Amino acid sequence: MIGITSIGAYVPTWRLDKGAIARQFRGEKAVANFDEDAITMAVAAGMSALDDAIRKEIGALYFACASSPYREKTAATLIGYAIDLPREIRAVDIAHSTRGGTAAILAAMDSVKAGSAKKAMVIASDMRRAKPNSNHEPNFGDGAASLVIGDTDVAVSILDSYSVSNEMMDMWKGESEDYVRSWETRFYISMGYMNTVGEAIRGLMKKTGLKPQDIAKAVIYSPDGRSVAGLAQSVGLNPKTQLQDDLFMQMGNTGTPYCLQLLAAAMENVKPGDNILLASYGNGADAILLQATDNIAKLRNKDLMRRLLESKKQVPDYVTYLRWRGHLDSAPQHVRPTPIVSAADLWRVQEGVTPFHGQKCTECGHIEWPPQRVCTKCQALDKSEPVRLSDKRARLFTHSKDMITDQFDIPMIYSVINFEGGGRMITTITDKDVKEIHNGMDLEMTYRRKFCTEGHTMYMWKAMPIRLK
């Protein structure tokens, strides 16, 4: 039996009221902060599905994304390093399609089935840019999701699948373009989405011999928050009783991770023996039949999506959103030289930067960051072992507010934090309400963008108030 053994998800803290875009729109969409992108959200989702035991067994990582910051560079290697997976993994990017999440699941299943990986991890993430005032702007949300696929302790088994490839120019983004384009809405909904996903679902039912009434929960990609109900009816499903809430009014369509996020949300109410239909769309469709096992009660993060959706802050206004997305140029209040990153220097110190390893002295037990050869407490030389700090909580020791340096993070909170168990770091605090910042508050770590220069995005670990208590 091969299937899902662990699940994770990420929805950004920030929400934009769609009415801020235009008064006729209702609901809200999830918006990545100015220092987030598809890679940082992938790291957050991946970390939520892992513990030390799972991490050691991962043999492959499949990263699905239609909005990677890099057009040439494997993002999966960076993500795998940041979440501290073993070096001996197969790291693969699956790009350019919102169907990539389910394609990654099927690839992960095949690798476990073939024995090339004991467990395989799937992470899907997207932060697609929509042109202001376009039909896509109120629809596109940001987010990420992750799954671990294995053949032991399976909570949701993968029974069968059916795929359809369909070549048509419905939605696309050119090589030199920043925004997603699409043909006329009725065309890509009726001739693309409705026909193709319907064909995949009917094909899966015919292949497995299942009838619509045998499906306990249908998790189906929703392009606009409306068409999915009609699609469900067209294949014999009851939208009111069988269709998973598409969460369109709470977070929008998040692209590649959308189906996986909906699947994570469905886990909260799934019972052993329930058949689950998972269907995606993007130049074709994948329909996957899943079934909950007796281990479903032990599945971690069953309520994670609900808690993430409930934990939110509002983007102050539409102009702030446009600036975060790079749609509006704004001069910094204080002009600084453009930072330059030395690839060689970063390579030398990357263990302390990307997987965020500190060191623990084997002589006196002192923990410190960044790693260095000499213990600052007992002066022992080259007698230390790495310790991961990315999943450690911390406490704010002291802080200051900078009102002029950064053009987005105003005020920027410079902080000195102390980690549980030992270790100290100087960093900034993100995803914050300035009124709630106080010395002694509890914090957690989050992987974020620092800056981008010459196409190279520099990432670092920042602190943030604990989001899910």
Automatic annotation (TrEMBL):
Which lineage is the organism of this entry classified under, starting from the top rank?
Answer: Bacteria, Pseudomonadati, Thermodesulfobacteriota, Desulfobacteria, Desulfobacterales
Q: Where is the ChsH2 rubredoxin-like zinc ribbon domain?
A: 358-379
A Pfam family: ACP_syn_III_C
Q: Which GO terms describe its molecular function?
A: 3-oxoacyl-[acyl-carrier-protein] synthase activity
Q: Which SUPFAM superfamilies did the record assign?
A: Nucleic acid-binding proteins, Thiolase-like
Q: Which organism is it from?
A: uncultured Desulfobacterium sp
The alphabetical list of record keywords is:
Acyltransferase, Transferase
Q: Where is the Beta-ketoacyl-[acyl-carrier-protein] synthase III C-terminal domain?
A: 206-285
Record's protein name: 3-hydroxy-3-methylglutaryl CoA synthase
Span of domain Beta-ketoacyl-[acyl-carrier-protein] synthase III N-terminal: 93-161
The answer on whether this UniProt entry bears the keyword RNA-binding reads: no
Q: Does the keyword Kinase apply?
A: no
Give the GO biological process terms: fatty acid biosynthetic process; secondary metabolite biosynthetic process
